[in-house]
Amino acid sequence: MIERQVYRLIILTAIIIGAVLVATLPNPNGLPNEASGSAYAAEAPSTVPMAVERLDPGLDQIVPAKPTLQKVATGPGFTWTEGPVWIPAGYLLFAEIPSNSIRKWTPGGGVSVFLQPSGYKGSVPFTGPEPGSNGMTLDTRGRLTVAGHAQRDVWRLERVDPKAQVTVLADSYQGKRLNSPNDLVYKSDGTLYFTDPAYGLPKVDKDSTKELPFAGVYRLPDAVNQKPGAPPNHDHLQLLTKELPRPNGICFSPDEKYLYVNNSEPKKLWMRYTVKPDGTITDGKVFFDATSDTRAGAPDGMKVDQSGNIYSAGPGGVWIFSPEGKHLGTLDIPERVGNVAWGGADHKTIYVAASSSIYRITLKIPGVYPHIR
User: Fold this and answer.
1) pTM of the model
2) What domains can you pick out in the chain, each with its CATH number?
């Protein structure tokens, strides 16, 4: 009798454990089996060893002597995280491009699916490696603005809510579809600037659906005042430059006198442009050339701090430049870095989207956060 009861208890326990395992396993896209918004089990951030390449004494004013790198979020199923943005309510949104989703990480609450699909929504299966959305930012009214990437547009949520109304801000230039908007930034006056390489097309530049013969950097004046749900005003979109074959990360200097745009390949460049009074750009100069660096990674998403230092994805990790263009040093991240974002209450924490994980590190100087009024 006792043996039978023990046996039944063992079988029941096994069934319960099996059910729990099945319920928590991700599907092939790395998403929970439950509906959108369900969360993976929360895990405490783990400290990860990190080396700092210190090339100039100026880095000591930015990076602590013994900085702590923490891994705050990881899969299962993450293969290329991108576009992080800190939401004032106290959580981080980021894209997981291959699974066509935007994820939400809440301190102490783990990772959940914020929106899926976030990019390509066609009826025919997407044949390329990057079907999702990419860079994200907030406009001056705190609304989430997204580089649609494989959706080939730039769109806005009227509230930071996956069920909110969607407004498409830009989808074509002079009657031709955009390539795949990659990253974006608002000027304080509500003008939107974004880059448009072809990384989100299934065959990139050789894709048969590619309509523009170049990769552009664009400006959309007064984007913040486009009416909710209104179609894009195609006549307003301005091409600023088409000189870069792979424009990627984009940000302003704190005083907005300069626009920084980097180029991922074949040359690994950071460019600086002077912003004219009318918002267009001129006097493009190579800010830094890292083409000779063979480490994994390339110029990608970037941000600035309140002192004008630039922080950018680059070979080996996060590169830090002075406002004058001196490479002060590199935060060596264990995975290939795609983008960075300022977060936390004081904006001294930089979040790093790196392949399969999200990392964070607290620095000494606050970052320039989106201008929300």
Assistant:
1) 0.90
2) 43-362 (2.120.10.30)
